[in-house]
Automatic annotation (TrEMBL):
Organism: Castellaniella defragrans (strain DSM 12143 / CCUG 39792 / 65Phen)
UniProt xrefs under InterPro entries: DctQ
Chief site of localization: membrane
Membrane topology value: Multi-pass membrane protein
Molecular function via GO: transmembrane transporter activity
Keyword Cell membrane: yes
Record-level GO cellular component terms: plasma membrane
Similarity remark: Belongs to the TRAP transporter small permease family.
Subcellular location, record wording: Cell inner membrane; Cell membrane
Listed name of the protein: TRAP transporter small permease protein
Lineage start: Bacteria, Pseudomonadati, Pseudomonadota, Betaproteobacteria, Burkholderiales
Function: Part of the tripartite ATP-independent periplasmic (TRAP) transport system.
Subunit-level organization: The complex comprises the extracytoplasmic solute receptor protein and the two transmembrane proteins.
């Protein structure tokens, strides 16, 4: 079951806020990717035409891609568009699937918290050591720190999905129980 749109909106008033934040971050990541592609094209064409490439284009591509890719994580989590293999669960009852989904989302919450924590520590360490990129002299801690908000928002989105999956499991459980009480198949 996909816990998006109307189902999540019914769970709480928090959905519009998370949805706006996650969507805004994803759109920002998409815009950054478009800028990076444009920069790369200008650099490649300039090199081929003899004007030379943009200084530090590879550094900007590496740094920008990391930040942009992380910006998509909250939205993908919120709408449930992560890669999933349900080969072993496709024949299970919907209630059981919802509980398994909730457990998986709990694991994602834990993983994102650890990633956010360690990434923030890495950014602080990089700031202390004064590491910077070779050609542009960009302090490396800045793009590393820019990833942390995406990881934290992904954590909140995964928590939201835990709540939605458990709510869905309760709903299905009540529906199945009512069907048993009334002698009707669910």
């Amino acid at each position: 079951m996909d816990y998006t749109g109307t189902e999540l909106a019914r769970c709480s008033r928090g959905w519009p806020i998370l949805n706006r934040l996650a969507t805004g971050l994803a759109l920002g990541g998409g815009a950054l990717f478009i800028l990076l592609v444009g920069m790369s094209l200008v650099s490649i064409v300039g090199r081929k035409l003899g004007f030379g490439s943009i200084t530090g284009d590879v550094e900007m591509m590496q740094v920008g891609t990391a930040v942009a890719a992380a910006a998509f994580l909250p939205y993908c989590t919120l709408v449930g568009d992560h890669l999933r293999v349900d080969l072993f669960t496709e024949r299970l009852p919907a209630t059981t699937k919802s509980r398994i989904d909730a457990a998986c989302e709990c694991l994602l919450v834990a993983a994102m918290l650890v990633l956010a924590w360690r990434t923030a520590l890495s950014a602080a360490h990089l700031r202390e050591t004064g590491d910077f990129t070779t050609l542009l002299g960009l302090p490396i801690w800045i793009p590393v720190a820019a990833i942390v908000p995406s990881l934290l928002l992904t954590t909140l989105c995964a928590l939201w999905r835990v709540r939605a999956a458990l709510g869905h499991a309760r709903y299905l459980g009540r529906r199945e129980q009512m069907a048993v009480d009334h002698g009707v198949s669910a």
